[in-house]
Task: structure prediction
Amino acid sequence: MLGEDEVTGNEDHDLAAVMSSVHTAFAALPSVLAFTGVDFKTMAINLSASGSYLPVVGQAEKTLPVIEVLVGKALYWYLIPAFQIVCALVVADASMYCLHRLVHTNQWLYKHVHSQHHRLYVPYSWGASYNHPFDSLIVDALSYTIGCTVSGVSTRQSMILFAYSSFKNVFDHCGYQFPWNPIRTVTGTDPGFHDVHHQSWGLKTNFGAHLSVWDRMMGTYFADKEQIARLRSRPRIQQGSQGHDKDRDWKSVTT
Result:
């Protein structure tokens, strides 16, 4: 189920391939940096005085300098996987923004599919998964499939990605606005950002699931605190949301 061959079968070869690239880069680095006037070749010899035994693809098994081993392992085990996960998240979120906006601007899709989720004017955590089945399939599953395919993440990496995505989805629907949220500092999104999207006056804004950059680029970003406070202070009937009306909600999206 977890793809045992993918998880355990190629680690030694892949690590050796990364080591080969690191070794080649370190070999060329002193010559490139010599243009600065500093004797990096001597420094490289000193750094190579002690080493660790590791195979290098395309070469006989040899001893590599400790610094190359450390850099290679850091790249293979941490930096490259982290970059792939971030890449998958960015690509998936770009796709989700487009598809999410589509199900709001297409009357048939909104009325028959996405409006189910927007019955929640006051989101709560479990409401994060209160979707029409096709909504989850079209917007979420397709987007993450695209992101994982483009980034080439492994089974283990995709598990980390989906664990974070599930947490973020539940967190954004929790209804609590925390005084400091490190996720918002990085992504620009939090429960307050998504709560605006669930209001009748905010349905055509804040489509991003993980990042606010797409809304900022496409002119759908809404974070004016004073205006939001005024809109929230209006009685629900003045907000045009007495009860759940699919056709009316769709018109508020397109007008």
